[in-house]
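Case study: HPt domain-containing protein.
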Amino acid sequence: MLRAFDHDWDFFRECVTIFKEEYPAMLRSIREKVAAGDATGVRQTAHALRGMVGNFQATQVARTAQALEEMGLRNELNRAESTWNCLESEVVGLEQMLEKLIREEMG
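Here is what the predicted structure looks like once written out:
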């Protein structure tokens, strides 16, 4: 994963900080857009989140975000709530893993 950041720990930590600041609002937005039936909004926000987690090479999280993005594209949100639940869990797990990497680097 650090190769993607050219082994630059400062840049990595900065990206993690931005991720931690931005992902909660993105998840909340997706959930609200799913509840409102806003397929375009789901697609756009899931796409942005997919790009963000892609920076960390979080393939499974990116796939789940892409699934939501595709549901929005097809205007088929009937499974979006359960997919969002998976995405939330995966993103929280990613945050924990990133924090662990930083702690290990600093320790």
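For the exam, be able to explain this: The domain at 2-102 is CATH 1.20.120 (Four Helix Bundle (Hemerythrin (Met), subunit A)).
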